[in-house]
Amino acid sequence: MKSKTKNLRTLTTEDELYDLWILLSRTRHAFYRARQKELAQYGISVREAGVLYVIDMLGQKATPTEIARWFIQEPHSVSELVSRMEKRDLVRKAKDLARRNLVRVELTDKGKEALRYSLKRETVHSIMAALSASERHQLAGYLKTIRDKALEEFDKR
Fold it and tell me: Looking at the domain 27-120, which fold is it?
């Protein structure tokens, strides 16, 4: 009886590309879970930590739409997350005085404290230290190339 599993030496290019995509997805998931575990001690999620960081970075330009652009997500998804964060007093939404239909997002004192905790990033440093500086630089280049191609494909559809 023949085995239904493929011998690694006979994989087609398509299979190799898909396997690489799966490896990238699983790596991201494992990294995400390790970071989530680290942030759980502070009562925030990876997504919340990311939003806090982007709001701080954008300053007065922080709106749900701008935050969504940063994460390559739909604005309504980010708006829902921001609303949940507002209920937890991590952020505050305020109407823009110049453009009344625009909502600005700012950090509360509790949000600033959560941001400070999230900046520790020990898990990120530990995991990324598995690569040399040269390997990290190469990886960054490869990931940017893949990201740009993925965005190009997304824009086609």
Answer: Arc Repressor Mutant, subunit A (1.10.10)
